[in-house]
């Protein structure tokens, strides 16, 4: 085995196949009437498929390319900033509610990850946050925290 990505992809391939295999005992059902094992089955297949993709990608890279991918362009501060934003998102989730918390997170990520004007960030954040609110709250009837403003 050439590198850690290849070894870890084999682990995730085995885990994905195990999830898919054992979820079948709960009953898969059909596409029109899925059983309790249907979603874990699909999840296991997706995990296994992504593991195969990573394994094949690593076969085609030279060892020098693999080492520089991790440290390329000094992106660690950005990664840590995003992780901090996600922690803050979870801490403020109940207080701000789903909609406000999601809008600020998406606006922040758009601004940090791909610097663009505030106008574009806000349009994207309100669109994505509002769209996800419509899907989860109104269409799927999920119980999301309303926050201190009540929405």
Percent range for β-strand residues: under 5%
- Based on secondary structure, the structural category is mainly alpha
What is the number of helices?
6
User: Which stretches are poorly predicted, pLDDT < 50 over at least 5 residues?
Assistant: none
Q: What level of helicity do the residues show?
A: over 70%
Oligomer: single chain
User: How would you sum up the major sheet?
Assistant: none
Q: SSE order in H/E notation?
A: HHHHHH
Q: Quick one: how many beta strands? A: 0
Number of domains: 2
Shape: flat
Please give the alpha-carbon distance between the first and last residues: 52 Å
- Taking all Cα atoms into account, the compactness measure Rg is 20 Å
Mean pLDDT: 86
Describe this protein with a few key phrases.
single chain; 151 residues; mainly alpha; 2 domains; 6 helices; 74% helix
């Amino acid at each position: 085995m050439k590198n850690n990505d290849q070894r870890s992809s084999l682990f995730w391939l085995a885990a994905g196949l195990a999830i898919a295999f054992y979820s079948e005992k709960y009953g898969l059902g059909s596409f029109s009437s899925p059983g309790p094992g249907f979603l874990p089955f699909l999840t296991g297949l997706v995990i296994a498929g992504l593991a195969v993709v990573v394994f094949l990608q690593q076969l085609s890279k030279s060892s020098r390319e693999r080492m520089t991918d991790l440290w390329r362009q000094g992106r660690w501060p950005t990664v840590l900033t995003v992780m901090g934003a996600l922690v803050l998102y979870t801490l403020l989730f109940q207080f701000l509610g789903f909609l406000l918390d999601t809008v600020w997170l998406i606006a922040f990520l758009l601004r940090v990850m791909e610097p663009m004007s505030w106008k574009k960030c806000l349009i994207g954040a309100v669109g994505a946050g509002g769209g996800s609110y419509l899907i989860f709250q109104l269409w799927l009837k999920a119980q999301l925290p309303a926050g201190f403003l009540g929405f």
